[in-house]
Amino acid sequence: MTASFADCANAIRALSMDAVEAANSGHPGMPMGMADVATVLFQRYLKFDPVDPAWPDRDRFVLSAGHGSMLLYSLLHLTGYARPTLEDIKNFRQIGSPCAGHPENFELAGVECTTGPLGQGLAMAVGMAIAERHLNATFGDELVDHRTWVIAGDGCLMEGINHEAIGIAGHLKLNRLVVLWDDNNITIDGPVSLSSVEDIPARYRATGWHVVECDGHDEADIVRALDEAVASDKPVLVKCRTIIGKGAPNKQGSSKVHGSPLGKDEVAAARVALGWNHPAFEIPQDIRDAWLAAGARGAAPHAAWKERLAAHPDRLGWERRGDVQPNLLQPHVQSLLANTQKVATRKASELALEAVNAILDETIGGSADLTGSNNTLTKGLQRLDADNYGGRYINYGIREFGMAAAMNGMALHGGVIPYGGTFLVFADYARAAIRLSALQHARVVYVMTHDSIGLGEDGPTHQPVEHLMSLRVIPNLDVWRPCDAVETAEAWEAALAKADGPSLIALSRQNLPQLRTEAAENRSARGAYALLEAEAPRKVVLLATGSEVEIAVAVREALEAQGIGADVVSVPCFERFDAQDVAYRRDILPQDALKVSIEAGTTFGWERYTGNDGLRFGVDGFGASGPYLKLYEHFGLTAGAIVPQILAKLNGEQA
């Protein structure tokens, strides 16, 4: 007996409602509503090979509506991926099961990106589509010829990041990107009309997209719509009219099936309504065979691709992309030592990038409309736009969140290493995507300039105070704040070498002296190191980052003149320092010395290094508008203001 289209779609519905019911937690409505669309996509259009989920020329499928994760887990299981197994699905949302509540890219092969925070999946898909077009321009159709498909819900299209992401995609004319909109007219609170009267197709058309509509439960109509989508010369939104929870006779079409299990009685009623006369988690063999046949479709095109790769004139170039050699920037560092530079670290970053971009073909830079301030465009880089996908620099416009999410998608696609710039204070706009960079182990480099009150007259709205510390608490994110041109180069070298996570480099607007005069190794890579050691008997350890290391050096000079020995410890990266062995950390932070921190930001968090008995100098309120040197005086961040307080502390006086 041959399984019908309805049988195949109902297998998704059954697995989804059974898994959610067993977990007593989850979202059955979206998988049941989009089962028909997903069946057409995976059985007829999507190019993939479950035997090799990482095949570079596979289509990317992104479940942006990640709450409907059982849709994806069902598809992966049915099409023949090694995991999830049926046992994994039975343990949906349980500790130890790769079938997490929302899809996690590090849990299962076949999950292209971590989704759940609505809108970010679609925005990451924009980055994947950018990477595909760029690599196609570089290596040709022989190696790169695939699409990016997205299933998104009403929430994904409401989130602000959607506006940013589709603007980028429309401007770049990413015609290999297709978004399948689960247009079921339901959110958690109830009908979409409770909160929106927006004409979504009109918005997409206005940003340069082609829009198609179909009945999301009619196989032939879905095929017609997808045929039209793949023929378009623009990115495409397919408006799939669906019934949320389709098959659950008493709850479908309502918010009752959005975020709660159907309940035992409704599951039983759904089995009757769907004609699914099989026990929980049981897939009849004919239906399983039909799905496995769909999964096997990719074997032949995959084999043909391998043959083309073997014969490709730039096969070695393809295979080495992403491999960053150690000591990448040592020649550049040596040139800095030979010709010292007193420059803003944002300029020092540009100098480092000149060397990086000349060596690594895979870097793709950009800025959220602050190119001249972030110094992210280097000589020789052409702009990546709709007329030149081979370019390596993207003008993202004033879209910090969209830029960050797109860079995540580019990194996860593979073959490129994205970096992008904005002001550090605007990390707040991008923070949710920065967090997902870290969670997904995506190699993204954030270039964030104007890193303190040192930016001066723009005032407190633009002066980051709490940002460095708030970013340092994100797991797996390396936050760098270099003090000079040498440390900036070392930060870039370490960031590019980190293949399993993101880095953020915070850079000054104001010029800073070059304090490093030797570089036998990348000392910044250890996170903290003694820039200067005490000459008199050591009583103080001065810890500082970025532009305040210069102040620490001046404080040390004043203390040493009074016979008080002081180390200056530069701390360019907390995360790297915390990863060092105990002996190294104890050597840098001896117990018998007063620890003093100096950073033009919140003092909160520095007590981990200074202890409660140490001193912490910073800015614990908002900034102010004025020339930056006057601001440092105003906030007491000068050697003249700091030295007396250290002396008072050493003398047992109230500091």
From TrEMBL:
<feature type="binding site">
    <location>
        <position position="373"/>
    </location>
    <ligand>
        <name>substrate</name>
    </ligand>
</feature>
<feature type="binding site">
    <location>
        <position position="462"/>
    </location>
    <ligand>
        <name>substrate</name>
    </ligand>
</feature>
<keyword id="KW-0460">Magnesium</keyword>
<feature type="binding site">
    <location>
        <position position="184"/>
    </location>
    <ligand>
        <name>thiamine diphosphate</name>
    </ligand>
</feature>
<feature type="binding site">
    <location>
        <position position="258"/>
    </location>
    <ligand>
        <name>thiamine diphosphate</name>
    </ligand>
</feature>
<dbReference type="InterPro" id="IPR005474">
    <property type="entry name" value="Transketolase_N"/>
</dbReference>
<dbReference type="InterPro" id="IPR055152">
    <property type="entry name" value="Transketolase-like_C_2"/>
</dbReference>
<feature type="binding site">
    <location>
        <begin position="116"/>
        <end position="118"/>
    </location>
    <ligand>
        <name>thiamine diphosphate</name>
    </ligand>
</feature>
<keyword id="KW-0808">Transferase</keyword>
<dbReference type="GO" id="GO:0009052">
    <property type="term" value="P:pentose-phosphate shunt, non-oxidative branch"/>
</dbReference>
<feature type="active site" description="Proton donor">
    <location>
        <position position="400"/>
    </location>
</feature>
<feature type="binding site">
    <location>
        <position position="155"/>
    </location>
    <ligand>
        <name>thiamine diphosphate</name>
    </ligand>
</feature>
<feature type="binding site">
    <location>
        <position position="509"/>
    </location>
    <ligand>
        <name>substrate</name>
    </ligand>
</feature>
<feature type="binding site">
    <location>
        <position position="258"/>
    </location>
    <ligand>
        <name>substrate</name>
    </ligand>
</feature>
<comment type="similarity">
    <text>Belongs to the transketolase family.</text>
</comment>
<dbReference type="Pfam" id="PF22613">
    <property type="entry name" value="Transketolase_C_1"/>
</dbReference>
<keyword id="KW-0479">Metal-binding</keyword>
<comment type="subunit">
    <text>Homodimer.</text>
</comment>
<feature type="binding site">
    <location>
        <position position="186"/>
    </location>
    <ligand>
        <name>Mg(2+)</name>
    </ligand>
</feature>
<dbReference type="InterPro" id="IPR009014">
    <property type="entry name" value="Transketo_C/PFOR_II"/>
</dbReference>
<feature type="binding site">
    <location>
        <position position="346"/>
    </location>
    <ligand>
        <name>substrate</name>
    </ligand>
</feature>
<feature type="site" description="Important for catalytic activity">
    <location>
        <position position="27"/>
    </location>
</feature>
<feature type="binding site">
    <location>
        <position position="426"/>
    </location>
    <ligand>
        <name>thiamine diphosphate</name>
    </ligand>
</feature>
<dbReference type="InterPro" id="IPR049557">
    <property type="entry name" value="Transketolase_CS"/>
</dbReference>
<protein>
    <recommendedName>
        <fullName>Transketolase</fullName>
        <ecNumber>2.2.1.1</ecNumber>
    </recommendedName>
</protein>
<dbReference type="InterPro" id="IPR029061">
    <property type="entry name" value="THDP-binding"/>
</dbReference>
<feature type="binding site">
    <location>
        <position position="154"/>
    </location>
    <ligand>
        <name>Mg(2+)</name>
    </ligand>
</feature>
<dbReference type="InterPro" id="IPR005478">
    <property type="entry name" value="Transketolase_bac-like"/>
</dbReference>
<dbReference type="GO" id="GO:0004802">
    <property type="term" value="F:transketolase activity"/>
</dbReference>
<dbReference type="GO" id="GO:0046872">
    <property type="term" value="F:metal ion binding"/>
</dbReference>
<feature type="binding site">
    <location>
        <position position="27"/>
    </location>
    <ligand>
        <name>substrate</name>
    </ligand>
</feature>
<keyword id="KW-0786">Thiamine pyrophosphate</keyword>
<feature type="binding site">
    <location>
        <position position="184"/>
    </location>
    <ligand>
        <name>Mg(2+)</name>
    </ligand>
</feature>
<feature type="binding site">
    <location>
        <position position="67"/>
    </location>
    <ligand>
        <name>thiamine diphosphate</name>
    </ligand>
</feature>
<dbReference type="Pfam" id="PF02779">
    <property type="entry name" value="Transket_pyr"/>
</dbReference>
<dbReference type="InterPro" id="IPR033247">
    <property type="entry name" value="Transketolase_fam"/>
</dbReference>
<dbReference type="InterPro" id="IPR005475">
    <property type="entry name" value="Transketolase-like_Pyr-bd"/>
</dbReference>
<feature type="binding site">
    <location>
        <position position="450"/>
    </location>
    <ligand>
        <name>substrate</name>
    </ligand>
</feature>
<dbReference type="GO" id="GO:0005829">
    <property type="term" value="C:cytosol"/>
</dbReference>
<feature type="site" description="Important for catalytic activity">
    <location>
        <position position="258"/>
    </location>
</feature>
<dbReference type="Pfam" id="PF00456">
    <property type="entry name" value="Transketolase_N"/>
</dbReference>
<feature type="binding site">
    <location>
        <position position="458"/>
    </location>
    <ligand>
        <name>substrate</name>
    </ligand>
</feature>
